Amino acid sequence: MNEKKIRKAVALAYETNSAAPRVTGQGEGFVADAILAKAKEFGIPTRTEPELVEFLMQLKLNELVPPKLYAAVAEVLAWAYEVDGKVIPNPNNVTIER
After folding, report:
1. Which residue of 25, 36, 71, 92 lies most exposed, with the fewest beta carbons within 10 A?
2. pTM of the full predicted structure?
3. Are residues 9 and 30 in contact, defined by beta-carbon separation less than 8 angstroms?
């Protein structure tokens, strides 16, 4: 049986004075493709993290990332800052996909 996985994407934003990153976009299929296209258009780094996306898809838009996901999300954000060549966190966005 050959099941095709549906692409999923979640966009996160972290503002310096915020308690945690928040979900700024999420979707499956064409919506996921649109999120990833916008990220590419604006030069926002993207990273494939299937397990993390599954958890983040359960959150609502604008909801803060819960403490149990801090470590995983921090790893992705640190990677995004490195890719962007940023050392000091500034308002930033990152998109992850499955």
Report:
1. 71
2. 0.77
3. no
